[in-house]
Design a protein that fits this description.
- The complex is a heterodimer of chains A (about 200) and B (about 210).
- Chain A has about 200 residues and is mostly helical.
- Helix content of chain A is about 75%, strand content about 0%.
- The model of chain A has no long low-confidence stretch (mean pLDDT about 90).
- Chain B has helices at about 5-10, 20-30, 30-50, 75-135, 145-205.
- Chain B has 5 helices and no strands.
- Chain B has about 210 residues and is mainly α.
- The longest helix of chain B has about 60 residues, at about 145-205.
- The chains are: A mainly alpha (about 200), B mainly alpha (about 210).
- The interface between A and B is medium-sized, with 42 and 27 residues.
């Protein structure tokens, strides 16, 4: 039977190192996704993940279960990302998608049913989303990441970001509204380009 | 609700209770703006799904289970290997010594038994001769020659036992000397091996390589 995070935390605190290994195996991927989308850099995201789990291990005895273990991990990871950006005085970057030659595209297809055109469109949208997110204020970006990509409840986000529930909703709504305007504008521009190409007979 | 659009988030994310959900549903039946707002939020959520994260390999090196003899973790591997070979050689020397002692005992045993058999035969002859002599001299009552003969016999037995002890003692001394020589030779060889290992470790360190690698 799969043990819960809380059970594994209790075992790890009592000295069972394998329980902590299991927690890492369970949460490494989500932590990497959060760090990567926050920083936009793979290498730094890996460093953040490693440091997150090292800090969690060192602080395990101090974790009293006041929040979910995962919320606690997300908080450590976001704090590390914030520290890194402040230390480096750098904003998140948007990594340019890989090449668009036929072999690369074939490797990246989500499913055989996805056409090359659909894959290219998905990649362009991925880049557009990354750019729009990178321009958001840090607090709004964190709220959207935790809700959209990690499925936290409003209350869990409030615990993670250490702010009131109403603040979480405000940040989320403002961030989504900005994203919506930018993405709608982009789609309008692309539609306009397509019409122009069609008119020129390209 | 139109003035508090954030309330729509709970509806969009299905993160509200049933009563709130009913209230929003009722409101949407009459409010075109809020319906558009919800459609816009759902669309942006759909767009956000396109943001991929590259695959990555695990960065975590799993903790190994705790070891009870933690002291040995601090000892370099080459010293453990050297210690193992020392124990192996001591075992080998012990085996050789045991074999030598056993073989010595085996070679001595038949000789000793033959000598005891010879002694027994000799004693039997002496005793038979003694009985015959006593029988012959019983009438004459002359005891002196008989006493002398018993003392000679006793001396012979004593000499034989002393000779036997001396022989065994000499055998043991020989084995002991052999062992001593073998151990001295082994110590010389071990010292040379350790000196060679140490110089190699120093060379590695001088070359900038960590000693542990």
């Amino acid at each position: 039977m799969t043990r819960t995070d809380e059970e594994l935390v209790a075992s790890a605190t009592a000295g069972d190192l394998d329980s902590f290994n299991q927690l890492v195996a369970r949460w490494e991927r989500p932590m990497y996704a959060l760090a990567y989308r926050t920083l936009g850099r793979e290498e730094e995201a890996r460093d953040v993940v490693q440091e997150t789990f090292l800090r969690a291990f060192r602080g395990l005895k101090g974790f009293k279960g006041q929040a979910k273990f995962s919320s606690w991990l997300y908080r450590i990871a976001l704090n590390l990302c914030r520290d890194w950006m402040r230390r480096e005085r750098r904003a998140p970057v948007v990594q340019v998608p890989e090449g668009t030659d036929a072999v690369d595209l074939a490797d990246a297809q989500a499913s055989p049913a996805e056409s090359v055109e659909e894959l290219v469109a998905r990649r362009e949208m991925s880049e557009a989303v990354a750019r729009a997110m990178a321009e958001l204020p840090e607090e709004q970006r964190a709220a959207i990441l935790l809700k959209e990509y990690h499925g936290l409840t409003f209350q869990e986000i409030a615990d993670t970001l250490d702010c009131p529930l109403s603040t979480v909703k405000t940040r989320l709504y403002q961030g989504l509204s900005v994203l919506r305007r930018r993405l709608e504008r982009r789609q309008a521009e692309q539609a306009s380009l397509r019409r122009a190409k069609f008119a020129r007979g390209v | 609700m139109c003035d508090d659009r954030e309330r729509l988030l709970g509806y969009v994310y299905d993160d509200c209770d049933a009563a709130e959900r009913r209230r929003v549903d009722e409101h949407l039946t009459t409010c075109e703006e809020c319906r558009e707002e919800i459609a816009g939020l759902r669309q942006v959520r759909q767009d956000l799904l396109a943001w991929d994260v590259p695959n990555h390999e695990s960065v975590w090196k799993p903790f190994a289970p705790r070891k009870t003899a933690s002291l040995w973790r601090e000892v370099p591997a080459w010293t453990l290997a050297a210690a193992a070979s020392v124990m192996l050689c001591i075992g080998a020397v012990g085996g050789v010594a045991t074999h030598a002692l056993t073989r010595s005992a085996e070679t001595n045993s038949p000789a000793t038994e033959a000598q005891i058999a010879a002694l027994r035969a000799s004693l039997m002859k002496e005793v038979q001769a003694e009985v015959a002599a006593r029988t012959q001299v019983a009438a004459s009552n002359d005891a002196t020659p008989q006493t002398v003969r018993f003392e000679e016999l006793s001396q012979k037995v004593s000499d034989f036992i002393n000779n036997s002890q001396q022989r065994h003692w000499n055998d043991l001394l020989g084995v002991s000397n052999g062992l001593s020589t073998a151990l001295r030779q082994y110590k010389t060889e071990t010292d040379a091996t350790i000196a060679s290992l140490s110089s190699q470790v120093e060379l590695l360190r001088a070359g900038g390589l960590p000693a542990g690698k």
